[in-house]
Specification:
The complex is a heterodimer of chains A (186) and B (91). Chain A has helices at residues 2-19, 24-35, 38-55, 64-81, 114-125, 129-140, 145-152, 156-177, 179-184; one strand spanning 96-97. The relative contact order of chain A is 0.11. Chain A has 9 helices and 1 strand, in the order ααααβααααα. Chain A starts with a helix and ends with a helix. Chain A is elongated and about 65 Å long. The termini of chain B are far apart. Classes of the chains: A mainly alpha (186), B mainly alpha (91).
Chain lengths: 186, 91
């Protein structure tokens, strides 16, 4: 009997290592997008990991990221309702904005215009919360449409519609400032 | 007329391509549609401009991607390890 329990625990631990731990970075970025605070993101991560560990034996092994993001969404709803003590909070640990170039197949894409970046940043900040949220999840956090839909608890079609309209507004902003021509003629 | 010819040939019109151009850039369309979009872009300069513009917007936004501090990741990793060793967490 003891051997059976130990064997089951070993399997669950192994599944946790295989399915959960490789997703920590993506999960943390998403947690930060949802909470906008290092302390709250860490709190949300703890909740998510704990829930994932407790339910790993019921997970079928398909789409671990989508499964984890759904857990995170539920944990976040709970967090908003009732704040829990921070167990991992360390004010010295902060996010850093990457200055690195994003991976891209096209070398031309590495020709970066600070003016263009500034204009896009400006347009991004003018987006409504609903639009900015999906842009953050997809373009900054690197989630797929379905994954963003899982986090937000909305249909994937809504994610797509908001994302495309949001980028369309950024495009319009570039057009109004004439910067779209700079991109087109590169 | 061009649209009708496109349909007859099984290829996509500019309007069709522009409807899916962002999903194409995001890698969120099926392989068959992606091939048709790529074929259209090969011979349509205005649509290629649009594709390039949206790709630049996406790349610019991605440059703002947050990097997670390695210390944070290590703390989360050790929290995950603690879950496995503390019996009460498996409830």
């Amino acid at each position: 009997m003891v051997t059976l329990v130990d064997s089951s625990k070993t399997t669950n631990d192994s599944r946790f290592d295989d399915y959960v731990l490789p997703e920590l970075e993506v999960l943390y970025r998403t947690a930060w997008s949802l909470t906008r605070s290092d302390a709250d993101a860490q709190d949300l991560m703890q909740d998510t990991l704990l829930r994932a560990y407790r339910s790993i034996d019921r997970f079928d092994g398909r789409y671990p990221r989508a499964w984890l993001l759904t857990i995170m969404r539920n944990a976040n709803i709970n967090r908003v309702r009732k704040k829990k003590p921070d167990l991992l909070n360390d004010p010295d640990l902060t996010f850093e904005r990457s200055q690195d170039f994003a991976d891209h197949d096209d070398p031309e894409a590495l020709v970066v215009s600070p003016v263009l970046d500034a204009a896009i940043e400006d347009a991004f900040r003018q987006l409504s919360d609903d639009f900015r949220e999906v842009v953050e999840l997809v373009d900054l956090d690197g989630l797929a449409y379905q994954e963003a839909a899982n986090v937000l608890g909305i249909p994937v079609g809504t994610v797509m519609s908001r994302l495309h309209r949001a980028r369309g507004r950024i495009r319009e902003h570039l057009k109004q400032t004439g910067l779209d021509q700079e991109v087109r003629t590169r | 007329m061009r649209r009708l010819l496109d349909r007859l040939r099984g290829s996509m019109s500019c309007g069709d391509v522009l409807k899916v151009i962002q999903s194409y850039i995001d890698g969120e369309i099926d392989a068959d549609t992606a091939r048709k979009v790529a074929a259209h872009l090969d011979q349509c300069h205005p649509c290629t401009d649009e594709e390039h513009l949206y790709a630049q917007i996406k790349a610019s936004l991605a440059r703002r991607r947050r990097q997670v501090d390695m210390d944070v990741l290590e703390q989360l990793m050790s929290y995950g390890e603690r879950l496995k060793t503390e019996p009460s967490h498996g409830d």
